[in-house]
Design brief:
By secondary structure, the chain is an alpha/beta fold. It has helices at about 15-25, 60-65, 80-90, 105, 115-125, 140-145, 155-160, 170-180, 225-235, 250-265, 280-285, 300-310, 320-330, 340-345, 350-365, 370-385, and strands at about 5-10, 30-35, 50, 70-75, 95, 165, 185, 210-215, 240-245, 270, 290-295, 315, 335. Helices cover about 40% and strands about 15% of the residues. The protein has a 7-stranded parallel β-sheet, covered by helices on one side. It has a 6-stranded parallel β-sheet with strand order 10-9-8-11-12-13, sandwiched between helices. The longest helix is centred in the last third of the chain and has 19 residues, at about 370-385. It comes from Providencia rettgeri.
C-alpha cells in the first residue's frame, strides 16, 4: 500500500532528519507543510516545504484538500496542529511526534517544580510572573477564542490522535497519569542525526580538551546556578573552561547566567550565545570531557547522545526521565549528586572500556539500523490504522 503522508513542520533543525528517514524507506511519498510564510528558511536545508498561512485551517477548501492524505504527521502539537486534528480526525490518521515542550505543560503544570532553589531565586528576581500566562486584552482574547476555538481543548484533542511518538517511552505513562486514559498508541520513533553519526567509528582519544559543558540553553530548567556553585566549591584546574550554550531561550535569564558565570569562574567561563551548526557544535563537544545537564525534565537529549558518543563523563539530574532511561539501559552515566565525588580526582573522560560500552549502547538504541527499523514499524502501524478511516 503506497502512502500519502503530510508532515506539519516548523523551521527548525529536526525535520531535515525526519526527511532523511522517511525518504530512505518510502521515497517521494511525503509532503512537507510549513504553516508560516517566510522569505527565507533559517534551519531547513533539505526540505522545500509548502508554505501556508498559520490561519489557513479556517479555510474549508484547505481543510478538504488535506483529506487526500492517508496520514498527517505532526512534528509537535502546535495550535495549528490542534486545529487540524479537531477538523480531520475522522478522515485522516494523525501521528504526533512529541518534542517534549508540547506536553511538558501537562506533565509539569507547576513550572517551579522543574527549578531548584537558587534558580528559583534568580527567576523570581528577573521575572516575577514566570510560569503565569499573561492575560491578553478582552479584544485579543475574543479574537483568539474565535480563531483557536479548539485550543482550549488540548487534552481532548490528544485523545483524538491515533499514534504518539514521545522522546522517551516513559513520557506516555507520565501523560496518562495526568490526563487519565490515554487513547493514542505509543510507537517508538525519534529523529536521527544525519543518518547517523552514531554509526561512524570514532577513536577513544578523539577528545581535544578537558573542559566542561553545562546545560543546553538559556532556560531556567537547566538549573545552571546549582551546577556553578558545585564546580566553584570543587575548584577547577586553571586550564579547564566552562562552556555554557545560551544561544536560545530567555535573554534576561541568559544575561543573569553570564553575569553569574563570570563571577564564579572569570576567564574560564565561556558563554556560547551564537547558533552553531552541527559540525561546529560537535567540535565544541569534543573539547569537553565532562557534560552536566541538570534538568529535572527530559531535555538536552541530543547533547547527551553526543556526549556518550565522544566518551565524556555525563552527569544528569537524578529525577530526570533521561537519567532513568539511560541507567535502565546500563549506560555509564552519573547523577549530579556525584559531581564532587567523581571530579575531585580531576577532569577526565571515561575509560576506554566505558567508552566502548556506551558506544555499543548508542548503536543499539540510536544507530541507523534501529532508527530505520523504527520508521518501518511506524509506517506499518500507519497503514493498519488508515484502513479503519477509509
Amino acid at each position: 500500500m503506497k502512502l500519502k503522508l503530510l508532515h506539519i513542520i516548523s523551521d527548525e533543525k529536526f525535520p531535515d532528519a525526519a526527511y532523511e528517514q522517511f525518504e530512505s524507506i518510502i521515497p517521494g511519498q511525503s509532503t512537507y507543510l510549513l504553516p508560516e510564510i517566510k522569505q527565507s528558511l533559517q534551519y531547513l536545508k533539505k526540505i522545500k516545504p509548502i508554505q501556508v498561512s498559520k490561519f489557513s485551517f479556517l479555510n474549508p477548501i484547505f481543510i478538504r484538500s488535506l483529506k487526500k492524505y492517508d496520514a498527517i504527521i505532526l512534528h509537535s502539537l502546535t495550535n495549528f496542529a490542534i486545529e487540524l486534528v479537531s477538523r480531520l480526525h475522522k478522515d485522516v490518521v494523525f501521528i504526533w511526534i512529541g518534542m517534549g515542550y508540547d506536553y511538558y505543560d501537562i506533565i509539569y503544570p507547576n513550572p517551579y517544580d522543574l527549578l531548584e532553589g537558587q534558580t528559583i531565586k534568580i527567576v523570581k528576581e528577573i521575572d516575577p510572573n514566570y510560569g503565569i500566562t499573561k492575560s491578553p486584552s478582552i479584544i485579543k482574547n475574543f479574537i483568539k477564542l474565535i480563531i483557536y476555538y479548539k485550543k482550549k481543548n488540548k487534552i481532548d484533542c490528544i485523545q483524538l490522535i491515533d499514534i504518539f511518538c514521545p522522546v522517551i517511552p516513559v513520557e506516555s505513562r507520565l501523560l496518562e497519569e495526568k490526563i487519565g486514559y490515554f487513547t493514542p498508541k505509543t510507537i517508538p520513533w525519534n529523529y536521527g542525526s544525519s543518518l547517523n553519526i552514531f554509526d561512524n567509528n570514532i577513536e577513544y582519544n578523539n577528545l581535544t580538551g578537558n573542559n566542561i559543558l553545562v546545560g543546553n540553553s538559556a532556560t531556567p530548567t537547566n538549573n545552571h546556578a546549582e551546577v556553578f556553585k558545585i564546580l566553584y566549591d570543587l575548584g577547577l584546574p586553571k586550564k579547564t573552561k566552562i562552556f555554557v550554550p545560551l544561544s536560545y531561550g530567555s535573554s534576561e535569564y541568559r544575561d543573569k547566567i553570564i553575569q553569574l558565570g563570570y563571577e564564579y569562574f572569570g576567564d574560564q567561563f565561556v558563554p556560547i550565545t551564537n547558533f552553531m551548526n552541527l559540525t561546529e557544535y560537535f567540535k565544541l563537544i569534543q573539547q569537553c570531557s565532562v557534560m552536566i545537564m541538570n534538568h529535572r525534565r527530559q531535555q538536552g537529549a541530543g547533547n547527551i547522545g553526543l556526549g556518550l558518543y565522544v566518551g565524556a563523563k555525563i552527569f544528569l539530574n537524578k529525577v530526570s526521565p533521561l537519567y532513568q532511561f539511560y541507567t535502565d539501559k546500563k549506560a555509564i552515566i552519573y547523577s549530579c549528586d556525584q559531581i564532587t565525588t567523581i571530579l575531585s580526582g580531576g577532569i577526565s573522560p571515561l575509560s576506554k572500556n566505558e567508552f566502548i560500552s556506551n558506544h555499543q549502547l548508542l548503536e543499539r538504541e540510536h544507530g541507523r539500523k534501529k532508527i530505520l527499523n523504527n520508521t518501518r514499524n511506524l509506517l506499518k502501524e500507519i497503514r493498519k490504522v488508515s484502513l479503519t478511516k477509509k
